[in-house]
Amino acid sequence: MLAISTTWKYTPHTILKGFLAEIKGLGLEAIEIGYDFTSEKINALIPLLSDFNIQVSSVHNFCPLPEENIFKRFYTDYYRLSSLDETERAAAVRATKRTINTAAQLHARVVVIHAGVVEMDRAYTRDILALYRDGGAGTLRYEKLKEELIRIRDIKKTLYIAAVIRSLEEILTYAKARGIKIGLECRYYPEEIPNLAEAGYLLKLFSSQGLVYWHDMGHAQVQENLGFSSQGAYMEQLAEYLYGFHIHDVEGLRDHKAPFTGTIDTDAIMTYMKPDMLKVIEAHPPASAQEIREAITRLGG
Question: How many Cβ atoms sit within 10 Å of the Cβ of residue 49?
Answer without folding.
Answer: 17
